[in-house]
């Protein structure tokens, strides 16, 4: 069954929010009217694309993620995504084309920590070129690449952008560590 455009947008908003949320927050994230979003959330929940883990809160399910084209992550795949990378696969941070910072991320968790130290110019340079999404895809994390793509469309800037991106990457590291049966040290 294919989903309507608005239902896909609601699932994308739930994916980006990344935790159980009130329908009003989901509507705000999706940029839609609350009554319409609430109606669609109820349908998505009945059909198994979303669930309500607590009264008045909703979150996307694995079925909802699959509807967005995201693969389910096995324990082995989660371990692979979290594993340290060789230098040639590390993320190399730049200020601009031809202006390397000599700052590298050798794992997803390392990347998460480096986001807090990265200057705004470099953050914007990489985000709006699609470098982060490309690297996440390269290391096998299609879901994180999708979340960053959705964040990019929100046109955030400055510290708000840094904090939101860090939160998304940190939450993803925690989720992957949980699937991989590993511990995650918050950065």
Word description of this protein:
This protein has helices spanning 5-17, 23-30, 34-46, 62-67, 75-82, 108-115, 120-129, 131-138, 142-152, 158-180; strands spanning 50-54, 57-60, 91-96, 99-105. It is mainly alpha-helical and 187 residues long. The strands form two sheets. It has a two-stranded antiparallel sheet. It has a two-stranded antiparallel sheet with strand order 3-4. Helix 5 crosses helix 10, helix 6 packs antiparallel against helix 10 and helix 9 (142-152) packs antiparallel against helix 10 (158-180).
According to DSSP, the number of beta strands is 4
Summed up, the helix count is 10
Overall pLDDT confidence: 94
> Segments where pLDDT lies below 50 for 5+ residues?
none
Overall structural domain count: 2
The percent range for helix content is 55-70%
Rg over CA atoms, rounded to whole Å, is: 17 Å
Amino-to-carboxy terminus distance: 41 Å
Share of β-strand residues = 5-15%
Largest sheet: 2 strands, antiparallel
Strand order of the largest sheet: 1-2
Structural class, from secondary structure content? mainly alpha
The dominant shape is globular
SSE arrangement, N to C: HHHEEHHEEHHHHH
